[in-house]
Amino acid sequence: MASRSNPSFFFGTFVLFFLALLSGALARASPSPAVEDSCNSKLLPPPHLLHSNKLTVLLSGFSEARLPLLRSVAVSYSTHPLVFSVQILWSNPLTPNRTLTQALRPFLVHRNPSTSLNSRFLPRPSVLTRAVVIADDDIEVPSASLSFAFSVFNTQPHRLVGFFPRSHDLDLAAKSWIYTVHPDRYSIVLTKFLIMGVEYLYRYSCDGGETMRKMREVVDMSRNCEDILMNFVAAERTGAGPVLVEGKGVRDYGDVRNQNREKKQSSEREAAEAQEEQLKQQREEEEEEEESKQEKDMGNASGEMSLVGLSKRGGHWKTRGDCIRQFHKILGKMPLRYSYGKVVPGTREQSLCEKGGKLVVCDL
Which residue ranges does the record assign to the Glycosyl transferase domain (predicted)? Predict the structure, then answer.
């Protein structure tokens, strides 16, 4: 048995005590700093000390009903050898700290200062890598796909790299920008999963002066489009579009096409919507009161104004098209650029050969 006078005994005791404190700190749900503090570059780690061969995963969460799924996804990321840390960005202010601690131990949980979607891009002193994964809580990425996406990112570290493409386009008839999907090109990758340089957190939240402040306000007003704005920020920096990579085996639990096969997903979605409704109800009532006052003031024009308000709430895709138009108007230009094709993990020949009386890929 070790003697208490033995120096190694005291060293071992100190290490265990330190690890116990660290474990408690990691498991505790801590509030995120205010935006002003997040933008204090003196509080952020120096760029030259950041790990260039590792990733920090920032997972966004809101629904308590999906905490088991969030934990499963977080554990999956944490076992990957390229992942330095997994951190949870929690945006539901109604969730007790104890609930998060019990569900997400030992992961570091940041309680965002508000429900603003802009909060997912706050710079954080706890991020110690040059690259970050921005991901939703319902996206599960196989180890090989994560490794491949990071290898592609390392060849073009100033561009956004992701699995889920979308596009902007110009509706010539309406003379207006729209949000859409093209089969042959894309200009946006979604924050369902993307890899980007950590510097973009600062560019999004802290740089750009009044112009970026107004564009972040668009995100808050629409409660949408933070991913589109990040694509604007990156395209403005690089003059190039994002990079789409093939994600073999990537599972999207939030895809509506899961619903017929997974009733549990439907109940989770309903629970999440109920929580969101509880938070939004008061704000919506205030907005309706304000709209009602405006309609009365406008007299005969009130019916037309009401239709416009309903149209703005008419659908996700239209809302995102509205965001693109507003971003373009505020910025005074359209930085989004199209990319073409998809990077795939392999260089097999595509030629066909006759085998057994059938034409098949020659490499088979």
Answer: 56-270, 302-343
Distance from C-alpha of 23 to C-alpha of 36, rounded to nearest angstrom: 28
Average pLDDT for the chain: 82
pLDDT at position 108 over 50: yes
Are 124 and 208 in contact, with CB atoms under 8 Å apart?
Answer: no
The model's pTM: 0.77
Taken in order 252, 130, 80, 105, the sign of the CA dihedral is: negative
Tokens of 26: 């990691």
How many helices and strands (H and E) does the chain possess? 11, 15
Annotated catalytic residue 136: no
d(CA 26, CA 189): 31
Q: Using an 8 Å Cβ cutoff, are 305 and 295 in contact?
A: yes
Six-digit token pair at 242? 């994002």
- Phi, psi (rounded to 5 degrees) for 169: -160, 165
Digit-coded pLDDT (tens) for 188-232: 999 999 999 999 999 999 999 999 999 999 999 999 999 999 999
Describe the crossing of helices 226-238 and 316-331 by its angle, rounded to 10 degrees. Answer: 40
Q: What angle do CA 73, 78, 80 make, to 5 degrees?
A: 105
